[in-house]
Amino acid sequence: MSSESQIPIAAKVASRRFARSLAAFYATLFGMTGVHLPFFTVWLKAVGIDATWIGIITAVPPVTRFTVLPLVTAAAERRQMLRGAIIATGFATALGFSVIGTQHQPFVLLAIYALTCCVWTPMVPLTDAYALRGVRQFGLSYGPLRLWGSAAFAVCALLSGFLLRYVAEVDLIWIITAVTALGALVGLTLRPLGRPAAAATPAAGAPKLLRNPTFLAIIVSSALIQGSHGAYYIFASIAWQQAGFSGLTIACLWVLGVIAEIVLFAASPRFTLPSAVLVMIAAASAAARWAITAQDPPLAVLAVVQLGHGLSFGLTQVGIMGLMVHHVPVHVMARAQGYLTACGGIVASTTAIVSGMVYARFGLGVYDMMAAMAATGGLVMWLARKRLTD
C-alpha cells in the first residue's frame, strides 16, 4: 500500500517540475522576442544598414515560417527528439545572434540572419508541441503555462527601453544575444517526456493531416483570426502617434493588451465551453475590436478596446491549442504545430503587404479589412463546428 500511495505523489512532483521548467522556458523564449521585436531594427540602423536592406532583412522570419520551419518540426518528430530539438535550436540561435553582432555588411548580415531564423522560428511550434504533450500527459492547462511568455515579453520590452538610456544603440544586439543564451540554458531544464505511441493506422499519421478537413479548419481559422492582428502590429503605433498620443500613452495602450492577454491565460482553466466555441467568440471579439478601432475612437474608448486583446488573441490561442490537443494525434503534434505556424506565416506575410497598400490609401480603414478577416475565421470555425465538437 505504501508504494501505491507514492505513485500520485510522484506524479504530482513530476507535473510541477514540468510546469516550472516549461513556464521558465516560455518566459525566456518570448522575452527574447520582446527585446528583438522593437530593437533589432534600431540596431540595424545604428550599424549603418539603410532602410531598403532593413526591409529585406526583417522579411526573413516570416519566410522561414512557411518554408524551413515545417521541415524542422517534421524532422524532430520523426526522430522522436522534441526536447532535444528545442535545446539544439536554442543554442544554435544564441550562436547565430552572437555572430550577427560582429557583422556590419548588409549581405553578410542577411545571410547569417537567414540561417539563424531557420533554427529560431521553429522554436515556438516545437515548444508548443512539447507543451501540449505535457498537458495531455500530466492533465494540465495550457493557458497558465503560456502566460509566462506574455508576461516576459512585456517586461523585457519595457526593460530594454529603459536600458536604451544607458546602452549605446550599436550594443543592443548583445542584449538580444544575452537573453537568447539564457533561454538556451533554461532549455536544459526541460523535463523529458514519455515517447508517444505510434499510430495504429496510417490514416492517423502526419501525411493525412493536410487532407483532414477538421485539421484544415483549425489552422485556417487560426491563421485568419490571428492574422487579423497584422495591421494592428504594424500601424497602431504610427496611427496613435499621428493622433497626438505621447510615447508613454502609446506604451500604456500596448501594455493594456498584454495584461488582458495574461489575465485570460490565467483564467483559462475555468473555461467550460468547447474549444471551437471559444474560437468563435474570439473571432467575433476580434471583428468587433477592429470595427471600433477603424472609427478612430477617443482615448478612453480605445483603452477599453485594447483590453479586447485578451479575447481576440489570447482566447484564440487557448481555443486553438485545445482543439489541437483533442483532434491531433500526439505522435504528430510537432508536425501539426509546424503546419499551423506555416499557415499563419503565409497569411501574416500576405496581410502585411496588403495592409500596407490599404493603409496608404484608406488609413484606419485598414481595420475594416482586419474585421472581415476575423469574421471569416469565425465562419470557418462555425462551418466545422459539428466535427470539432464531436
TrEMBL record:
Protein name: MFS transporter
Ranges for domain Major facilitator superfamily associated: 21-363
SUPFAM superfamilies: MFS general substrate transporter
Protein localization: Cell inner membrane
Organism: Bradyrhizobium brasilense
Pfam family, one: MFS_1_like
Topological category with respect to the lipid bilayer: Multi-pass membrane protein
Lineage of origin: Bacteria, Pseudomonadati, Pseudomonadota, Alphaproteobacteria, Hyphomicrobiales
InterPro entries membership: HcaT-like, MFS_assoc_dom, MFS_trans_sf
Coiled coil (residue ranges): none
Listed transmembrane segments: 21-39, 51-72, 84-101, 107-126, 147-166, 172-193, 214-235, 247-266, 273-292, 298-326, 338-360, 366-384
Keyword tags: Cell inner membrane, Cell membrane, Membrane, Transmembrane, Transmembrane helix, Transport
Keyword set includes NADP: no
